[in-house]
Amino acid sequence: MSFGDSKAIVSNQEGIHDKLEEIVKKHLSHTFEKPYSQHTLAVFNALDKEVKQFDGEVILDACCGVGQSTRILAKRNPQALVIGVDKSAHRIERNVDEHIDTSLANLPNVRLVRADLNDFYRLVAQANWPIKQHYILYPNPWPKAKHIQRRWHGSAVLPQILAIGERIELRSNWPLYLQEFAKAAEFVGGFETEFKQVIDDEPITPFEAKYRASGQTCFQLVLSRQ
Ligand SMILES: C[S@@+](CC[C@H](N)C(=O)[O-])C[C@H]1O[C@@H](n2cnc3c(N)ncnc32)[C@H](O)[C@@H]1O
Questions:
Q1: What residues pair up with 131 in beta bridges, in sequence order?
Q2: What are the tens digits of pLDDT across the range 176-225?
Q3: From ligand 1's centre to the CA of 205, what distance in Å?
Q4: Residue 64 CA, closest ligand 1 atom number
Q5: Domains (ranges, CATH) in the chain?
Q6: Which of 59, 89, 148, 216 makes an SS bond possible with 82, Cβ 3.0 to 4.6 Å?
Q7: 65 in ligand 1 pocket by Cβ < 6 Å?
Q8: CA 136 to ligand 1: nearest atom
Q9: Is the pTM of this model over 0.85?
Q10: How many angstroms from the chain centroid is the CA of residue 195?
Q11: Could you tell me if the CB of 45 is within 6 A of ligand 1?
């Protein structure tokens, strides 16, 4: 598929999944006890030292892909430590520094790490990192109804996801994903939510650029802790 030829999401689901409430409540009442992967634990431990010594705000860019948004956020927030996390070594290790706007290359406040967020989120929540802003930009949508538990709001780690950040921003080209996430947050409680179209001049991630080039609308959900 070439750039500008991205297909809109097709799903066999018409509205909020009818099992969403049951799934979220199950995850709220059970502790997620799967052991941490050694790799993610080692990555977390190294960053944990730095975060504890860092005297400023921390921004988490979850599912950062090649880290373009991580770099843009770091440039916009030079006082912050901006941590991009993705499970794909291929994406994290791709040196986009060479291909992007040179003002985004080699920023001192960017950290890009390969880790599994199912583990990383639990470690961050447990360590109570002082995350100011938490981004989840264009998560994999898993549009088939039977895959609801692969979406972040259907996952066992949702309680920890929602525990991280004073402000949580998600973006997607599939509005139902964001509406479901907002509904899941409502079951948990404690957030004000805002849902709108993305109107930034410049796309902040490669997926956003791809969807816009294909004429698709991108949406944004912002949860602010009350
Ligand atoms: C659709 S891509 C979006 C990447 C980037 N945010 C963008 O908009 O260009 C979703 C990303 O989520 C990452 N991802 C999915 N599950 C993950 C997990 N459990 N832990 C860490 N990253 C994950 C994938 O590797 C992929 O890079």
A1: 58
A2: 999 999 999 999 999 999 999 999 888 999 999 999 999 999 999 999 99
A3: 11
A4: 6
A5: 20-225 (3.40.50.150)
A6: 59
A7: yes
A8: 6
A9: yes
A10: 16
A11: no
Cα Rg of the chain (Å, integer): 17
Does 203 sit in the ligand 1 pocket, CB within 6 Å?
Answer: no
Beta bridge partners of 216: none
H-only helix segments in the chain: 20-29, 38-53, 68-76, 89-92, 117-127, 158-163, 175-188, 206-213
Query: 92 and 67 in contact (C-beta within 8 Å)?
Result: yes
CA angle 213, 8, 61 (to 5 degrees): 70
CA 85 to ligand 1 center in whole angstroms: 8
Residue type at position 125: A
Q: What angle do CA 130, 78, 51 make, to 5 degrees?
A: 30
Beta bridge partners of residue 169, listed in sequence order: 135, 222
Q: Parallel, antiparallel, or unpaired for β 219-225 and 167-172?
A: antiparallel
